[in-house]
Specification:
The complex is a heterotetramer, with 2 copies of chain A (341 residues) and 2 copies of chain B (265 residues).
Chain A: E1 19-21, E2 24-26, E3 30-32, E4 54-56, E5 73-76, E6 79-82, H1 91-105, E7 108-113, H2 118-128, E8 136-142, H3 152-157, H4 159-172, E9 177-180, H5 188-197, E10 202-205, E11 209-211, E12 214-215, E13 220-221, E14 228-231, H6 236-249, E15 255-258, H7 264-273, E16 277-280, H8 283-286, H9 290-305
Helix pairs in contact in A: 2-4, 4-5, 5-6, 6-7, 7-9
Chain B: E1 3-16, E2 19-25, E3 39-43, E4 54-57, E5 60-61, E6 67-72, H1 76-82, E7 89-96, E8 108-114, H2 118-130, E9 137-143, H3 152-157, E10 161-166, E11 173-174, H4 178-191, E12 195-200, H5 203-216, E13 220-223, E14 239-241, E15 248-250, E16 257-259
Parallel strand pairs in B: 8-9, 8-12, 9-10, 10-11, 12-13
Antiparallel strand pairs in B: 1-2, 1-7, 2-6, 3-4, 3-7, 5-6, 13-16, 14-15
Helix pairs in contact in B: 4-5
Classes of the chains: A alpha/beta (341), B alpha/beta (265).
Bound molecules: flavin-adenine dinucleotide (FAD) (2 copies), flavin mononucleotide (2 copies) and FE2/S2 (inorganic) cluster (2 copies).
Residues 228-231, 233-238, 250-252 of chain D line the site of one FE2/S2 (inorganic) cluster.
């Protein structure tokens, strides 16, 4: 049982934002999401990077990859679709050219990674293991990319396949592996359970939802690959539901929540649903300092609501109170007749 | 019969305490004969982020089509509405729902209002005064402080007895409005006078009014607020838990005014 | 191959809106969606019902049902969540009290139905068969309700179960059965295929996506049943993707498309993705005449784009043209240096 | 270095043809030394429906922080922007990208503009005139009709030669702007004069300019428009297909100005 809501507000300085994610301790629960923060540097022009708890990098593969044809993005109601194509510098160049900068900034570095096939995943985990002690905290294994060709789908949607893949990657590195799950499944709990049993240190929830938009004038999709991934506030209710489902079924499994977080209140919803920390994705495009605004708003909101620590509200949401039992025998009262014309 | 029409904002009057009255012009006759407690669904050019219209009790309406609502910035929709400029237009559906029982049927009607719950009771009073039943009404009006009590001068002008209560004691009795209401109900019992309660306001206030009415066995009519999507009986979102043959009735079509005993709280 | 886009606009009267849906011929492709139009009567106050091509009724079960506790609805960014609980008058009362009105209005009546278990579905199809010749055109079998307790999930997410259920219902009535599929699956094509092979006359795509919202002040869900169904423009990109996937895989299977349609352009996107007709749902709450506005806008847009008939654009979307091949040997041109500071 | 800041609308000037110039005040120095072709990302208080900022070429900027952009209502964002009122504020990120090569490097720069592609070329001309290189520029300006050609008086005042082309023949040559441009390029070839083309406008126009430049072997700089989410190199949404060592470069960081030959069209 969680504590009932407090009523008294707290002074801001009484709010302790620190939070744990499995073995990690973070200064606060706000990280930047993969693919929405590149490798961090660009943001230094606009904000103090060190105020962020951490970031998940653009997805890294064993070799560098070029991206997809254009158009790669389009906006939809309260969301956007992307099909970037997992363009990245490759594991080697990442370790050499990008990691030192992030490590110097003192952020918790989560390296989002993938392979083009089973062996590619394992190879990538092995290559990135070299970053242990040099700044990498977590390997975030993306088994949810809609844009990989063969095998990609099964990694993210068939529990047994995900289990095998996770197990192999866990064996290939001593870094903690957090598996990023796709929402494009009937049963996200089965997926979370499969990867948890294979040794995942936690799960990231959710990646984008496969989606499409059409330009009725050209009669073509708005995204060159026809389908892309939907992100932004549009998907927040789906993300929250999945975080809550997984947390309820597997309360010990650390969850990093994401999907449409734009405000401190959004972040708190995810935490109350069961996330130990959250990532801010698409919001970074609207304004480069978005993640720090989420942090500041979360801080202020926790103070207002009298929440002293993050831990006390992780997964605290309780069912709606039951209604007064129905008494069918009671005579129906008269209607307020006057109003009916 | 309810219809759908466009209305233009004519004036946006600030009352203090964050309350505003929005006055609209609209095609003549659309809200003729609106019963106090009936409401309209209003939606501005809100794009796709805010999908659903919002419900507002009619504060007054004129045969020439003008009408007004009273509100306060509360969430996303009302925040946009208080910032509206004359000339802006809204889509209106209404009048909707069933209102309060008419005044002057032999009982003294004790109107119990709080916050944005004032409009239907204000209209009840206006209608009663116009029909010569002003003496058969009394207002009990509660708020957190002085700023929460608006449009009091109208009641004064109409010669309606008003008792206020504020949580900070700045106007009237200190505490909740149910304190003076209880006194009044007990007095009515002692006098053997027929009274009924008509109430609209925040749900905690309505719950307290209901408890009091049940305790003292007085008929009370509560004007409820539920989340609404459509306002005209099709989404079934606005269920109100009730006793009787069915466990739920609908705020928008069966209500928003319900008899207190029937409400399953 | 579909025809390439025309350039010349047409006069409105040259646009023929008629369309076919399997055996049905409809005056135009705009219907109202289940649960968003009740049993139709209420809309007669606001619009000429007969201008609508048809409607899908609130979901009907063999016996009347009361709904769920409240709150039942809440708004989200460009969407809403509902958990009405499939409240309905029951098959008998529907046939007696509701159908005659609709039948007199001359609409194509699609009776959305469900059962609380396998036998309940079959019984409902049998009961509703009595409406054949009395106004019912289609039975729209809802196997996608997130709010039914046992078995409900498998009906909508396991192809074999959906196949068996469809087959049994098809056998119980001579009315065409259109199966309404849930988007909460990994592979919507497998579901469509399973029900098509079982004799479904078509599919309706999509129902709501299971979702959640949290009130951080009360620390409770905003919907009494914790989870509800997300509808509205937020889900349109997901719905379009599923319509397109199913149409591409099963081009002969008639699809009724829906999910977030608010404008004529939205409707045309669904048609171009592969829907033969569409349903307007949540939009009806914003303004009661929403479906007729969609119709008028579609009409105007088809004229503007020179589309003479609906059939010519059903599923007409073509892939983005391939890019000019890359020539890696070409020397990279100089950058517009001036701009870099 | 680009920064993020808030700007207030000072004036919303209508130019005709649906074009407007929005003039903003902002903290001093933020857009100092902006290079023609560089852009800003602008986002208003748009709520959650429109998530991403929109890219606009800088039309002019002053050391005191004032700056302007020119636009036309096109889709959802620009429709909101043309309706903005003085005092409204926007979040700005910029200056971003790489602009056109500077004037006065020995070549005559032929500026080829269409529609909302005018601003960077207008700024190029302004900067050139200020640096005394006004004679090294000529403008070729195309549109559907008279209304599409705006701010022409500025070029006149600056003494820059202008050739217009309209599809309806209402101003200048009838047809596309590439018709007079071709004449001019052929003349330059005959004269042995060094010219380069700087162009911004609708993609079909840029494609035609590119084809012409390749045909006549003239260097041409194209200021491209791609869908952008971030504008500063992190989303990788704004890919531009190119030849050379990589198949894609990025409109927001490598461009928006690209050399025509390199673009893989
Ligand atoms: C019959 C009826 C008559 C009404 N008359 C008036 C009136 O005359 N004047 C007036 O100011 N208001 C009135 N209301 C309330 C008004 O409709 C709500 O304030 C409005 O819907 C809130 O809209 P919003 O967009 O500002 O808030 P939202 O942004 O929609 O809501 C913010 C949050 O508050 C919650 N919420 C929304 N509405 C309510 C509510 N009613 N109670 C509790 N929580 C809620 C939502 O779940 C949301 O999470 C009436 C409501 C009903 C049902
Ligand atoms: C570097 C750069 C500089 C620019 N400078 C200017 C400027 O100075 N003045 C100006 O008016 N505009 C300029 N634009 C274009 C401007 O950013 C777009 O017009 C704007 O993004 C469209 O926004 P919207 O919200 O009105 O349209 P939306 O509602 O976003 O778009 C409507 C539809 O058009 C499509 N679309 C959006 N943008 C484009 C586009 N650029 N080309 C083709 N289709 C598109 C979308 O996919 C969408 O479906 C510039 C763009 C770039 C990349
Ligand atoms: C442009 C873009 C690129 C992305 N790239 C990746 C990626 O490389 N790896 C990954 O795991 N997720 C990627 N994502 C998904 C996000 O990390 C995040 O899970 C998703 O967008 C939901 O969060 P949001 O709504 O806050 O953006 C990408 C998202 C966007 C919008
Ligand atoms: C309040 C509400 C009630 C619904 N009830 C039903 C129902 O009874 N049966 C059903 O198949 N779909 C039901 N739906 C789903 C809609 O018919 C439709 O599939 C979905 O809402 C997507 O379309 P939209 O975005 O246009 O609303 C309901 C939707 C809403 C919003
Ligand atoms: S608000 Fe839709 S039924 Fe009452
Ligand atoms: S717009 Fe995001 S990388 Fe260019």
């Amino acid at each position: 049982m969680s504590a009932p809501p407090r009523t008294a507000a707290l002074p801001r300085e009484r709010v302790d934002l620190r939070c744990g994610f499995g073995p990690l301790t973070l200064p606060h629960p706000i990280l930047a999401a993969s693919g929405c923060f590149a490798y961090g540097q660009q943001f230094a022009d606009f904000m103090d990077l060190r105020r962020l708890a951490g970031l998940s990098t653009k997805g890294i593969s064993p070799k560098p990859r070029f991206g997809n044809p254009l158009p790669r993005i389009c906006e939809t109601a309260s969301g956007m679709i992307n099909s970037i194509g997992l363009e990245n510098v490759g594991a080697e160049a990442f370790l050499r050219d990008k990691l030192p900068y992030l490590s110097a900034a003192g952020l918790s570095v989560w390296v989002n990674f993938f392979g083009e096939d089973f062996d590619g995943y394992v190879e990538c985990a092995r290559l990135l293991d070299a970053g242990r002690g040099h700044g990498i905290d977590v390997l975030e294994m993306n088994i949810s990319c809609p844009n990989i060709k063969k095998g990609g789908i099964e990694f993210g949607t068939v529990p047994e396949v995900a289990h095998r893949l996770t197990k192999a990657c866990v064996a290939a590195t001593s870094l903690p592996i957090v598996v990023k799950l796709t929402p494009n499944v009937s049963d996200v709990v089965a997926m979370a359970q499969a990867v948890a049993e294979a040794g995942a240190a936690g799960v990231s929830l959710i990646n984008t939802i496969t989606a499409m938009a059409i330009d009725v004038r050209t009669r073509r999709p708005r995204i060159a690959t026809t389908y892309g991934g939907l992100s932004g506030p549009a998907i927040k209710p789906v993300a929250l539901r999945m975080v809550h489902q997984v947390h309820r079924a597997l309360p010990q499994l650390p969850i990093c929540g994401m999907g449409g977080i734009l405000s401190g209140e959004d972040a708190l919803e995810f935490i109350m649903a069961g996330a130990s920390c959250v990532q801010v994705g698409t919001a970074n495009f609207a304004r480069p300092d978005a993640s720090l605004r989420v942090l500041d708003e979360l801080h202020a909101l926790m103070a207002e609501l009298g929440i002293a620590t993050v831990a006390e509200v992780v997964g605290c949401v309780q069912p709606i109170e039951p209604e007064t039992p129905w008494n069918p025998a009671a005579a129906s009262a008269p209607d307020a007749e006057a109003g009916k014309r | 019969m309810p219809t759908q029409f466009e209305a233009q904002l004519v004036a946006n009057r600030t009352l203090g305490g964050g309350y505003v009255v929005l006055e609209f012009s609209a095609p003549a006759g659309r809200l003729d004969g609106v019963v106090p407690g009936q409401f309209v669904m209003l939606r501005g050019a809100w794009g796709r982020e805010l999908l659903n219209p919002r419900a507002f009790s009619v504060l007054w309406s004129e045969p020439d089509g003008r009408f007004a609502v009273m509100l306060k910035a509360y969430g996303r929709g009302t925040t946009r509405m208080v910032a509206m400029q004359p000339g802006d237009s809204m889509t209106v559906t209404g009048p909707l729902g069933r209102g309060f029982p008419p005044p002057g049927q032999g009982s003294v009607q004790l109107l119990v209002a709080g916050g944005v719950g004032l409009p239907p009771l204000h209209l009840q009073a206006r209608v009663a005064v116009q029909a010569g039943h002003g003496r058969a009404l009394e207002l009990f009006y509660g708020g957190r402080n002085r700023d929460d009590l608006v449009l009091l001068d109208d009641f004064e002008r109409w010669g309606i007895a008003v008792q206020c209560a504020t949580e900070d004691g700045s106007v009237g009795a200190r505490g909740f409005v149910t304190v003076p209401l209880r006194e009044r109900l007990l007095q009515a019992r002692r006098d053997g006078a027929r009274v009924e309660v008509l109430s609209c306001g925040p749900t905690p206030m309505l719950r307290a009014v209901r408890a009091l009415a049940l305790e003292l066995d007085v008929t009370a009519w509560l004007c409820l607020e539920e989340e609404m999507a459509c306002g005209f009986g099709v989404c079934l979102g606005c269920a109100v838990p009730v006793h009787g043959e069915r466990p739920y009735r609908y705020c928008c079509t069966d209500g928003p005014v319900f008899e207190a005993r029937q409400v399953r709280w």
